[in-house]
Amino acid sequence: MKALLRRDLILAIRAGGGFGLGLAFFLIVTVLVPFGVGPQSELLSRIAPGILWLGALLACLLSLDRLLALDWEDGTLDLLATSPLPLEAALSIKALAHWITTGLPLVLAAPLFGVLLSLPGPGYLWLVISLALGTPALSVIGTFGAALTVGVKRGGLLMSLLVLPLYVPTLIFGAEVARRGADGLQTTTPLLMLAGITAGVIAIMPFASAAALRVNLR
Amino acid sequence: MTLTIRDLCVARGGLPVLERLSFSLAPGQALILRGPNGSGKTTLLRTLAGLQPSLNGEIVAGEDDIAYAAHSDGLKAMLTVTENLRFWADVFGQRDIEPAMAAFSLDPLRDRLAGTLSAGQKRRLGLARMLVTGRPIWMLDEPTVSLDRDAVALFADAVRAHLGAGGSALIATHIDLGLDAKVLDVTPFRAAADARAGASDEAFL
Amino acid sequence: MPIERTRATAYIWLMSMTDETPIPKRPSGFWSYANPVKFLAFSARVLPVLWWLSGICLIVGLVWGFFFTPDDFRQGSTVKIIYLHVPSALMAINAWFMMLVASLIWIVRRHHVSALAAKAAAPVGVVMTLMALFTGAVWGQPMWGTWWAWDPRLTSFLILFLFYLGYIALWEAIEDPDTAADLTSVLCLVGSVFAVLSRYAVNFWNQGLHQGASLSLDKEENVADVFYVPLLVCIAGFVLIFIALVLYRTGTEIRLRRTRALLARETRA
């Protein structure tokens, strides 16, 4: 399992853009929003938590179609499926690698982008906490979408259509935590809900993903 | 360690391709599969490797005995030869990759990125993967594609050594490897064109 | 060891215990309709009845509701859109539920008709969802002064609509029918869990404008009797026409599969 994680991380670094692309996309979304809604800082600071969450979510989605497609094309998935490593574990590891290469940089960079959108002071901490708790769920759910559509040619668009509705609960609670945090309100309830969704998704989704992948491999 | 197949029926896209196939493969034995394109050799190997369900019949093999090599080698262009092999050795819980490197004379290529290898060199690396699985029953699908004569000889030696060590091999190939092996022509087992028993769409006929 | 192989082995092993060729048990009762031929014969018999019954129920219910019930003292004649809105909203959810049950049956018992029924129900469900959304907008405009509000119920229906779209798109995208059936079933299961989660999330996110349920088993909460009876007739009509449409569409899917199966053998021979 360690070997698979190490390999995925090395590939992400060497293939170029593994770490950088998602982050650059996040930056562009953040920069484009003021162009779209106007530069008034009080408006920006009000919508900042939501925009940052949405940007992180889209950046996550962007890199999903490479999560399994490359391993599918060169036959690695076939060989992995016949290896002693259970597919459930392999997919969990791949989701983890995806989170480390996409989710984690977003979490770390989010405060910087918060400055661009004049996020209010107390919001920074809660933004980072909510993203740190929520982005793993995005990776795991995304892995399920990738496993469903891996056999479809040009499945990227289809995958977005399937995955985005599944992101709704995570987005709602994650953005709610960030928003309440920015407004200086109680964040306990949405935070617990977000943590609960992430934990549940990590526990259960790999089985659904592996089932879908097995069907696609046969 | 013995692979036994009884009355097996395998399907491609829900349609039966091979029927009533029975054979057994004891340790030390090799079996060469032959048959025209589309006769179901790949389907048979994929079924035996556990990637797809059989329609009918029985496959008896020990747990985690079978190692499978497909048309594509699952190599990563951005990893070196050693890293590629190391990865599969780790996945299969094996330590030593040196014998595999030596058997397919990959030593001179050790630190080359797999993406810069020629087709034949890639294939050699793909076949070296079989040695690091540590599994007794090899399933090889057209292993000699894009190999030159020397490399074919290396491959034949590797198979012979594997058989000598009590392993077995099921090889779908068209060239003569010079192995002391039985040949199984799958043509007589081809399912009738209108075969329906067990097909996934049987209920609709 | 991969599951598939183990299962085949175990099956053969069980069979060899009985020491005689197993006689396949003919399913009887409900499960016998899993046979496509029997299903087609059955639906050919009941469909005409269903078309007529649903037509009668809809006409009676709608005419009664539109023309022979009093106007609401607050809402005026706008209230009458309830006769389309409530039944279509009900069926939008029930269609998804039916797909969930059919998907489960396919996963557990591998009956093709079940998978095809789920496939056939999806577009009907989409139409019901759209109808509920549209009539809701038409109703909401005079009542709340807006065509659309991000009210939990409305939002949930919009999300349900997205789930339907994804489900249908996945069916369309995959060539092999059995693979498509498997994958869409998994999606339907996972989607159901997330649909429920989304419902709660949306509730939490915004407390809404929408009134409580129009119907409930608690009599006190219900709409007045004058509206109630024609509404029930309309709901019966929607249920019947849903069943009829699904049966009809399932029949089409079965014939499509049969054509495919025959063609596959034709082209190979």
UniProtKB/TrEMBL annotation, chain A:
Which parts of the chain span the membrane according to its record? 12-37, 43-64, 96-117, 123-150, 157-178, 190-213
Query: Which UniProt keywords are given for this protein, alphabetically ordered?
Result: Cell inner membrane, Cell membrane, Cytochrome c-type biogenesis, Membrane, Transmembrane, Transmembrane helix, Transport
Q: What is the membrane topology here?
A: Multi-pass membrane protein
**Pfam families cross-referenced by the UniProt entry:** CcmB
The entry's localization annotation reads: Cell inner membrane
Main location per UniProt? membrane
Give the signal peptide, or none: none
**What family is reported?**
Belongs to the CcmB/CycW/HelB family.
So what does this one do?
Answer: Required for the export of heme to the periplasm for the biogenesis of c-type cytochromes.
Query: NCBIfam families, per this entry?
Result: ccmB
The name on file for this protein is Heme exporter protein B
Q: In which organism is this protein found?
A: Roseobacter sinensis
- The primary gene name is ccmB
TrEMBL record, chain B:
- Cross-referenced InterPro entries: AAA+_ATPase, ABC_transporter-like_ATP-bd, ABC_transporter-like_CS, ABC_transptr_haem_export_CcmA, P-loop_NTPase
Q: Which SMART domains does the record match to this protein? A: AAA
Q: Which GO terms describe its molecular function?
A: ATP binding
Q: Which Pfam families match?
A: ABC_tran
The ABC transporter domain covers which part of the protein? Answer: 3-205
Keywords linked to the UniProt accession: ATP-binding, Cytochrome c-type biogenesis, Membrane, Nucleotide-binding, Translocase, Transport
Q: What is this protein called?
A: Heme ABC exporter ATP-binding protein CcmA
- Organism lineage: Bacteria, Pseudomonadati, Pseudomonadota, Alphaproteobacteria, Rhodobacterales
